[in-house]
Amino acid sequence: MPLDLDTGRGLAVGLLPEIVLSAWAMLLLLVAAWRHREPGAQRRLGWLSVAGLTLTSVVVAWLWAKGVYAEGLATSMAVDPFRWAVDLIVLLGAALTILLSIGYLDREGIQVPEYHVLVLFATVGMMLLAGGADLFVIFLGLELMSVSVYVLAGINRRSAVGAEAALKYFLLGAFASAFFLYGIALVYGATGTTKLAVMGLQVSSLGIAKHPMLVAGLGLLFIGLAFKVAAVPFHMWAPDVYDGAPSPVTAFMAAAVKAAAFGAFVRLLLMGFSSMHPSWDLVIWWLAAVTMAVGNLVALAQRNLKRMLAYSSVAHAGYLLTALVSGSLAGAAAFLFYLLFYTLMTVGAFAVLIAKGRGGERDVTTDDLAGLAESDPFLAFAMAVCMLSLLGFPGTAGFIGKWYILTSATGSGYAVLAAVLVLTSVVSAGYYLPVIMAMYMKPRLHEQAHAEVKLPGLVRGMLVAVVAALLLFGMWPNEVLKAARDGSHAFLPASAAVVASPMATH
């Protein structure tokens, strides 16, 4: 189904998911302002937010099923399967976050009705970020997402560490946005356009791939996006912000925010700069290798579970970067597959952490989980499955995801980077497995050690679905792989221009 985005009708259809979710968020904002003092108002807003996210997901799935695509190259929004795939992952992450938050906000005494609305607006920004085919649209999505998440990080006004996390994220995020904006200016100066598709044609046809202004602009764009995905050395904010923010917000940042930023990363590289692959693959190679190494090694030293999961998130950014380094369709498909299940296993791990902790979960250590299998067998099993999937243990979706990332890297000649991924995954066993050992092999610290662990039926049901998905698709991944390959085909024309790089021989 072709769309002409120069017409009002075509533009409305192309932006229909964003329009639906934005309208829903503004309606909920009015409801929050009008009915916020009523008992249970915040919980109702949570359920209404889930309904809005579900409706938007249905719209995205319908557009994907209809095979909608944009006519021409000079479009500001991409209309392709890759956008729909990333949108669905982001919407799933947002819905799971709100489900975690419904009981959490009541328990922690955080009475802020705008919380759920901010999650929705952040999600709209993520969808623009992942679907933008113009650098200015990507920047707009980046800022809408960032401003909303800044507020969410410090939403608990009684928490000093929460305020510190929000301030740190805001200041460093502003610097990252400035880098990205200056990158846009330089790229525009070199190419005369901000449209990614047009830019890709000009870079390949005009022979400006080594133009200093273009290379400098691309480098600045890399810095801006590397901050959002928490890639080393732009990760220093992540542990402190993740640790200080409320745990559902941390899960949101580690899953949905990272997914959207990586979606923009992929589109930028494969649509706008695929012909410059020999110039940027070395940068991505080292960025992936260092991120995997630093994230996993520092995570080994963490006893606090929340900080451990923060550094784990940094390490997984390196795994996802490995999928991008080849600039191939196989890498894009592996990226989509792993991104989906990374979202599930991250949110699942944080759900268990929320059940165990109180007051922001900053004091929960590995030892605090000792004997959890005896007190709550399901909770321990869910945490074990999430840890094993994050590790990449056979039989879980995490293993299949890492396997396809490895095959895409080795198939493109990046055997050394694939070896780094394998070795760092082995290192990660040093902090994932002790969590499982504590739950199953250590006695409880005292008789009432887990008496405070209470998992609402809603979150328990969500965990059941997450665990089932991680195990089911770890054994039968074909359908999800098929959808991931369909999503990667959006870059088929651009990817054909990719040539072998000198780095591929290393």
Give structural notes:
The chain is mainly α. The protein has one domain. It is 75% helix and 1% strand. It is built from 21 helices and 2 strands. It has helices at residues 8-14, 16-35, 41-65, 81-108, 114-131, 135-153, 160-191, 196-205, 212-228, 237-244, 247-272, 277-300, 305-324, 329-356, 372-375, 377-391, 397-411, 415-441, 457-475, 478-488, 492-495, and strands at 2-3, 69-70. Strands 1-2 form a two-stranded parallel ribbon. Helix 2 packs antiparallel against helix 5. The model is unreliable at 494-506 (pLDDT under 50).
Question: Number of helix segments?
Answer: 21
Distance between the termini: 44 Å
The pLDDT mean sits at 84
Low-confidence stretches: 494-506
Rg, please? Answer: 22 Å
Strand content: under 5%
Q: What overall form do the CA principal axes indicate?
A: globular
**Level of helix content?**
over 70%
Largest sheet: 2 strands, parallel
Question: How are the SSEs placed, and which strands pair?
Answer:
Elements: E1 2-3, H1 8-14, H2 16-35, H3 41-65, E2 69-70, H4 81-108, H5 114-131, H6 135-153, H7 160-191, H8 196-205, H9 212-228, H10 237-244, H11 247-272, H12 277-300, H13 305-324, H14 329-356, H15 372-375, H16 377-391, H17 397-411, H18 415-441, H19 457-475, H20 478-488, H21 492-495
Parallel strand pairs: 1-2
